[in-house]
Amino acid sequence: MEKKYKTLKDFFPFYLEEHSHPFNRALHFVGSSLALGCILGFLSTGKFYILAFALVSGYFFAWIGHFFVEKNRPATFTYPFYSFISDWIMYFKMLTGRIDVEFAKIKSNKG
Questions:
Q1: Cβ contact 99:12 at 8 Å
Q2: In a domain, 57, yes or no
Q3: 107: helix, coil or strand?
Q4: 47 phi-psi bin (left φ>0, alpha ψ -120 to 50, beta other)
Q5: Per the domain annotation, does 58 fall within a domain?
Q6: Nearest alpha carbon to residue 15 among 85, 91, 80, 86
Q7: Has residue 59 been placed in a domain?
Q8: Model confidence over 1-57: pLDDT tens digits?
């Protein structure tokens, strides 16, 4: 039976474990970066169709990583809000070089 997460703090370690392969995380990073670029493109042009590209690019790369690299089901199907927030936390941790610290925390908590 799948655990029910009640807080983002409890969910985030699970989220990271679902993204343990570096190539999967890289695909997420590319998709999120493209999504940010599309959002900036929308803000600078006001063309709403660009927002569709933001959504597609973000999910396309992430789902490729899950289905073909991790071979797991994206957490967004079960926890859409926590997954969305966790993706941006992971993105920031990767951008700042702190993702390994997060994985070390998970490892030390498991004993």
A1: no
A2: yes
A3: helix
A4: beta
A5: yes
A6: 86
A7: yes
A8: 467 999 999 999 999 999 999 999 999 999 999 999 999 999 999 999 999 999 999
**Which H helix or E strand runs over 36?**
helix 22-45
Query: What are the CB-based long-range contacts (under 8 Å, 24+) for 22-25?
Result: 23/65, 23/69, 24/65, 24/66, 24/69, 24/70, 25/65, 25/90, 25/94, 25/99
Domain presence at residue 12: no
Pairwise CA distance, residues 36 & 7, whole Å: 26
Q: What is the dihedral of CA 51, 65, 11, 5, to 10 degrees?
A: 90
Distance CA 47, CA 68 (A): 33
Two tokens, residue 29: 């990073």
Range of the domain at 83: 48-101
Domain count, the chain: 1
Q: Widest CA span of the chain, in angstroms? A: 51
Give the integer Cα–Cα distance in Å for 31 and 78.
Answer: 20
